[in-house]
Amino acid sequence: MLAEYLPILIFLTLGVGLSFVLLFVGLLLGPHKPDDAKNSPYECGFDEFGNSRMRFDVRYYLVAILFIIFDLEIAFMFPWAIVLDSIGTQGFVAMAIFLVLLTVGFAYEWKKGALEWD
Known about the structure:
Elements lengths: L1 H28 L6 H4 L18 H25 L1 H29 L6
């Protein structure tokens, strides 16, 4: 059983090793001319202002959660589409119910105005 995973282990070892070698070579050969502008934290190209611990609007988190939900929907649809021939009508109906539930939730959020960004 270990022989089946040996090529994967070799590939991962070579990939991690090569990445460290390339990072080290870049540090050695790359130009290193730091100044105050390069060492300062970057914030959208202008000087920082305000407190970094300010509160965000709840709608920001709501949009982020909606993105995660619909991203997971797509993640569930890829394997379903691949095995659709073997799971038959029952699998198709199950995915249709799943999509209808997500669509109803999306319509509810839309109607409540959660996607409006004023």
